[in-house]
Amino acid sequence: MTLIIIDPGHGGTDPGATYKNYQEKNFNLAIARMVRDRLFSKYEVEVALTRESDKTIDLKPRTNFANAIKADFYLSIHHNAAGGSGFETYIFNGTVPNETVQLQSTIHNKISTDILKKYNILDREKKRANFHVLRETKMNALLIEVLFVDSEKDLKLLTNPAFMTDISTVIADATATAMKLPLKPKPVDGTLYKVIAGAFSKRENAETYLNMLIQKGFGGFIATTVVNKETIYRIQVGAFKEKENAEVLAEKLNKAGIETFILVEKGNPPVPVPDKGYKIQGNAVLSAEQMDAYTRTINPGAPDLAALYLAHSKKYSIRGDIAYAQALHETNFFRFTGDVKPEQNNFAGIGAIGGGAAGATFPNASTGVLAHIQHLYAYASTSPLPAWDEKVDPRFDLVTRGSATTWQALNGKWAVPGSNYGELILSLYKKMLESALVKLEKEQATLQTTLKNLEI
Question: Fewer Cβ in 10 A, N or C end of the chain?
């Protein structure tokens, strides 16, 4: 399946262009989120963001991330400044394949036809530049400068929720057209958990509130409903099939000072569809020594946790070596560069929803590993917890039991939106296997040489 990386420019301590109380980084993130949601809901595609929240991320890690997971397209969202007005797109000013030129032309022209003319926006044309994200990506890459933050005319549009929804929708659809993405089949009916960030009797009040959300880097749209013959304007920020994912987003919004509620819409019971991919339950292949050795090639000071993963996972028939790979992914090889701190013993990021929320804390490493395994067990199995272990996973009962029996099926469940989450874990596991094979081949060569030279 096609994998698209959306890169919201700047973030954290790097605000990008600033004007009055407005910061480019927030516009970038809001549009990136809405583009992602549109792509993911309408098309057969995997989508990942280089940053999900207001975090400082240098340019190199962004392109390294896209290159490591072999993305098919890199779309960087920015806003301009310095006394101009209008919309423009960029590709690398060096040698690029014809496909890159065609992608830029398709996306730019559709945005020009559907948005620029509608809102009387200046088309600053298709351009080339030596930007890092265009030069260092190994896939087709495009950078969009939506509008100028310091232009009063442009800023009026950027603070208009209708325009932000329109531009995000067209960017997504233009990208889908350029990448020839197939439409998703009609979804199976089932319960849907909608995250609502406000309900208003007047549309102008809803638009004002949605604009505030956009300034904070959140996307959303206004949905209307009728209650007691009165039209109500609700601001919907997300909709999920998994209750846990809706609660994660609601917590993130609440932490940002935005009161939310989850609206549950019942539908017909979904038709069970077997999970496709590599099963979570099964036997580990790698040894603890091989796993720890691989980790120390990246982080020499990493703790010895592999044996704990194998011991706890065996009791639950979970593939402990892949669970360990998931822990490497969540903790950045136990360097804990995100919100979770080492002393929390939270190796799976349980309850860490971003925006500074550190998540659960466990008294020791063994309990932290056990919580991780139990959380996987909640997804992979409908059986009760074994009698010999107490429940230590604080979010065990929030999971729809048996809803993800494969690592790929964790996409959009363990991480939000996490559209390629399982693939990232398996890709890391593959590197662990390859590292172990290389070492075994060297050991075998040494043994063969010794045997050959042995004189008896």
Answer: C
Q: Provide the token pair at 411.
A: 């996409």
288 in Cβ contact with 307 (< 8 Å)? yes
413 touches 240 (CB < 8 A): no
User: Are 246 and 190 a contacting pair, CB within 8 Å?
Assistant: no
> Catalytic residues, which ones?
145
Give, for 324, the enclosing helix (H) or strand (E): helix 320-331
* Cis peptide bond upstream of 417, omega within 30: yes
Q: Which residue has the tokens 């969009």?
A: 144
Of 238, 205, 244, 426, nearest in space to 353 by CA: 244
The full DSSP string for 161-198 is HHHHHHHHHHHHHHHHHHHTPPBPPPPPP--EEEEEEE
pTM: 0.65
The residues, ordered by sequence, that sit 6+ positions from 214 with a Cβ below 8 Å of its Cβ are: 26, 27, 30, 159, 161, 164, 220
Q: How far apart are CA 5 and CA 171, in angstroms?
A: 13
